[in-house]
Amino acid sequence: MRSAIYTRYSTDLQNEKSIEDQVALCRAYAAREGLSVAAVYEDRARSGGSILGRDGLMQLMERARAGDFDVVIVEALDRMSRDMEDLAGIHKRLTFMGVEIRAVHEGAVNTVLVGLRGLVGQLYREDGALKVRRGMSGVVRDGRHAGGRAYGYRADPRSKGELVVDEAEAAVVLRIFTEYAAGATPRDIAHGLNRARILPPRGRSWNASTINGNTQRGNGILRNRLYVGEIVWNKVRMVKDPDTGRRVSRPNPESAWQTAKADDLAIVPLDLFAAAQERKAINAPVKAEHQRRPRHMLSGLLRCGCCGAGMSTNGKDKSGRIRIRCSAAAENGTCPDPKTFYLIAVENAVLEGLRAELSHPKVLAEYVREFHAEMRRLHAKAGAQRSRIERRLSEIDRDQNANTDHLLKQVPGSAPAARIAARMDELQTEENRLRIELGAAPELPPLIALHPTALVQYERQLERLQEAVTAGIAAGDGEAAAALRDLVERVTVHRNPDIAGGVKIEIKGRLNALLGEAACPNRVRGVWGAVVAEEGLEPPTRGL
């Protein structure tokens, strides 16, 4: 019999020779059992807590499906998975493919062994996580840092698990607190740091969010209490998404946080830190339930065509027209082409583009075709229901006549006559029920064509679309803006190189999901249920 060997070890901290040792053990088992080894599959530094991201296991399952081998050999079942659900699924699928699992120390694997080993493996993994957290809690109690590297510090090469102040980064931290307490916004501070070409903690540039952080998670430069010599641990917990296998963080309540003093790590004076926290409390964001609805038709939908960042309002000109600008240019000054546009011009371009697409003759033809197809479907459905009932009534009538003829030929009081009489009662009951159903069944709808005046009315409504939506939004009608936002997913704004001061827009929306391939004939292509406008939805707007 042909066999395949599967091996795995969990983390980079384990010895890579573990793979070679497992392979040698499995080969020796195969030789004892008279199995030929067709292939070896491995996953190095991959957790058994999920099957996601384990290329070796995925290749093994693929080749098993192709029938390349009859047996899978593992050192132990926990090499395949330490999750009950995953291990049971692997066993079920391999069994369906006719492939047997054999463990070196346990022999042929059955359902009982899979259940027991899956339970033990998962308990072992969860118990290990609890012990790790217990160990990290002890590290914090000893005054050492249990988290990742914080900006302003570096690992102490002389003492494992301890931090020392990085003087260059500490000066940046002190600068941030000083400027913020003096009245500068996080956005202004980020601009200054980027202009000075100071490297951020992560990524390529400083952002306001890096400095501000998140209140619920207690992160960000301005919220980090390590800068005043206080270690705070257990702000978040990590959980694994069962659908993606990725670890995601969840904030813990403040009552679960663990703190310890570390005066030697203080960078920011207490009075300066307190002044920054007081200002942050004054500028605290509005709670979600108290936030306003989108103020403009395209709020949150606009994207910069140069760098892909969002766009936000940027004041008004003398005539009162609202300007919009790339948020990356405003937040950190990194957009290479921070062009300013007028919001009304972009809104008009979107409305005009949608109106032009919806009024295209091909769209109207598709509308008519779908209308007639639906009418035919409804007619056929209703007709089929009535035909079924009428056909069955005819069958009952024939059976009743046949039974009556047979009954007249029988001797009174005989057993066959009694059975036929009972059958006649059943048929009469069914007939009564079917006649009730036939009376309640809808009449066949007439096959009517769509009247030409309906199409004329449709075109007139589209012609008034732009004026109606614009007027509704101006009058504070939230439903008008919401209706258009249901059609549009994203609007990317570009310069128009062909016209001085012009603008081009690219719309990604939901029209294709509603109307299908014929939704946008003006050279609009579908993207995952969305539409992207090309020439057909790029009307130039002058005077920007």
Automatic annotation (TrEMBL):
Transmembrane segments: none annotated. Residues 2-161 form the Resolvase/invertase-type recombinase catalytic domain. InterPro entries: DNA_bind_recomb_sf (IPR038109), DNA_bind_recombinase_dom (IPR011109), Resolv_N (IPR006119), Resolvase-like_N_sf (IPR036162), SSR_resolvase (IPR050639), Zn_ribbon_recom_dom (IPR025827). SUPFAM superfamilies: Resolvase-like (SSF53041). Residues 150-288 form the Recombinase domain. One of its GO terms (molecular function) is DNA strand exchange activity. PROSITE patterns: RECOMBINASE_DNA_BIND (PS51737), RECOMBINASES_3 (PS51736). This is Recombinase. It comes from Chelatococcus reniformis.
